[in-house]
Design the sequence.
């Protein structure tokens, strides 16, 4: 029984991680195709990727869009969550529902809607348009995470702060934000990851400057190559580093 | 540093529910007033109205003679010590206590000095650099008090602040609260449902029930000369005898009693019933007795009404044998009209 459960665990990790492992292994393929047999390691493809201007530009664009859209989504989500936590509004439940609703809509539909609306409003496809699209998908997420983090202790601390003479901005910045800092960080990094990975909206709403997933997709159109594996491995490495640093710093501190 | 509070015709409704019915109450500067009543009686609502967390549906709240009815908590000369302490978990005790001063634009040096002084008052100055999670419940309580007093409010509002503490600590904090209140001279308005706590700390007790003030007076007045049956009952155990006027005295189930004639319920505290007193309650048989340390709690069956039980607190070592017949006496009689 004991062996069986270990086997089950191993199978589960295999299922989750094998595709990534294959991707990473064949990014070192000495040859033109990332398929077995493995011909021996080479760093040639990594050199090529790092020397590829378009790819590096796309990487920069992705970073910019992810940082900016996550920051905006986090700010708006924080303000909305703080507001709903403290004020009793007529139709409050309905308004909460409306804010969270975009989470249930597929990215394709949101992307199409944004494309038509931007066309009509005369906004050209651009990184800015993509960033706005990413705010649309990440705002509900930030709102949901932060709303859940504001409970009775936070509300009563806010009440006490006001009682001691704090203004609204001070209440939010000096009391609420530090009290829910772990959730703020979680919401920000989740938003960042979703924006970083997001393809459909970015594909529909960019034209000349593209984000990394769109650039990878256009590379794939010319067929499989260990170069795309190398890009994927690099992106994966960045994500892993991010998660590990978070785990070691912020979340460990918060759980104390 | 201190101010009087005046509540004029204050009524408060939550939707269709009326939490307070036209309350009038004057609290003098420097007074320690306790709002006492069962849960749902409106005492916390009244405190919130004074603190500015609620705006009354009707009526006025005056603090220090100024109309504060529509002023928010931020600008009122009041601070509140909350039931759950509401300390800021990410700040040290020094920063917690100094927060109000920081909001008033004081320099870090000035507010740190004041914060340490306030912490010293509650005996926690050696922990100024700690955070709230490192403290016990009683210590957090003291920090909350220091924080609320650091801004030198005219009126301190205490919302059942001792409810979460164990009995011994509660008694100790009551003494401390009383001592600190005398020292700083600030008006304290304290909410509780514990009548012993109310008597231990109050200059004046306001007994509330169903959104109305039942009685307002010193602990002695409220306990010994209650104005309503509710207030008499709430303040402590009671022997209740229905009476009606008969000649010079009253007629009761125990027979005629020589007390001023009135119709209603004759109330006698257990300690006002005993083997001596100002008037006789007739003979009775002791049915049960229990030793409570400070007194014996005895239950008597009067011979004139054997189904009835009179509870008496007799001094240590002076109660008769169970089953013995003695003559009981009463003192401090109060006759109150039956509740409508």
Sequence:
């Amino acid at each position: 029984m004991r062996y069986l459960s270990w086997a089950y665990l191993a199978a589960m990790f295999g299922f989750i991680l094998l595709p990534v492992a294959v991707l990473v292994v064949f990014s070192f393929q000495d040859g033109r195709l990332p398929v077995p047999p493995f011909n021996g390691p080479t760093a040639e493809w990594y050199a090529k990727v790092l020397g590829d201007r378009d790819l590096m530009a796309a990487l920069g664009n992705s970073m910019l869009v992810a940082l900016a859209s996550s920051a905006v989504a986090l700010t708006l989500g924080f303000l909305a969550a703080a507001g709903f936590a403290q004020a009793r509004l007529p139709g409050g439940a309905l308004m909460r529902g409306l804010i969270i609703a975009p989470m249930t809509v597929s990215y394709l539909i949101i992307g199409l809607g944004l494309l038509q609306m931007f066309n009509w409003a005369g906004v050209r496809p651009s990184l800015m348009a993509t960033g706005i699209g990413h705010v649309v998908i990440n705002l509900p997420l930030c709102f949901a995470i932060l709303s859940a983090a504001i409970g009775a202790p936070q509300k009563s601390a806010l009440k006490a702060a006001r009682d001691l003479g704090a203004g609204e901005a001070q209440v939010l910045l000096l009391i609420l934000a530090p009290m829910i800092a772990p959730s703020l960080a979680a919401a920000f990094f989740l938003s960042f990851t979703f924006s970083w990975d997001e393809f459909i909206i970015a594909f529909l709403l960019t034209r000349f400057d593209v984000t990394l997933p769109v650039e990878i997709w256009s590379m794939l159109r010319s067929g499989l190559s260990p170069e795309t594996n190398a890009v994927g491995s690099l992106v994966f490495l960045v994500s892993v580093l991010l998660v590990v640093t978070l785990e070691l710093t912020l979340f460990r501190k918060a759980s104390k | 540093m201190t101010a009087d509070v005046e509540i004029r015709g204050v009524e408060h409704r939550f939707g269709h529910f009326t939490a307070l019915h036209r309350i009038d109450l004057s609290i003098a500067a420097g007074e320690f007033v306790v709002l006492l009543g069962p849960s749902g009686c409106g005492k916390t609502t009244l405190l919130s109205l004074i603190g500015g967390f609620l705006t009354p549906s009707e009526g006025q709240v005056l603090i220090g003679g100024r109309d504060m009815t529509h002023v928010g908590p931020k600008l009122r000369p009041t601070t509140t010590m909350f039931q759950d302490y509401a300390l800021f978990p990410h700040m040290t005790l020094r920063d917690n206590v100094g927060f109000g001063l920081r909001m008033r634009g004081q320099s870090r040096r000035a507010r740190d000095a004041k914060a340490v002084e306030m912490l010293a008052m509650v005996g926690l100055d050696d922990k100024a650099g700690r955070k709230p999670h490192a403290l016990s419940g009683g210590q957090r309580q003291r920090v909350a008090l220091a924080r609320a007093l650091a801004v030198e409010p005219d009126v301190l509002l205490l919302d059942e602040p001792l409810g979460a503490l164990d009995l011994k600590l509660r008694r100790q904090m009551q003494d401390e609260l009383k001592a600190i209140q005398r020292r700083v001279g600030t008006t304290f308005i304290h909410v509780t449902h514990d009548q012993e706590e109310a008597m231990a700390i109050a200059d004046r007790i306001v007994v509330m029930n169903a959104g109305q003030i039942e009685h307002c007076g010193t602990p002695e007045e409220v306990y010994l000369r209650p104005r309503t049956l509710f207030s008499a009952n709430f303040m402590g155990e009671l022997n209740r005898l229905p009476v009606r006027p008969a000649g010079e005295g009253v007629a009761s189930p125990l027979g005629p009693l020589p007390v001023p004639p009135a119709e209603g319920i004759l109330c006698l505290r257990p300690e006002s019933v005993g083997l001596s007193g100002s008037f006789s309650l007739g003979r009775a048989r002791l049915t049960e007795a229990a030793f409570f340390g400070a007194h014996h709690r005895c239950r008597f069956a009067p011979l004139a009404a054997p189904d009835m039980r009179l509870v008496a607190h007799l001094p240590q070592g002076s109660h008769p044998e169970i089953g013995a017949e003695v003559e009981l006496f009463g003192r401090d009689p109060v006759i109150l009209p039956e509740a409508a």
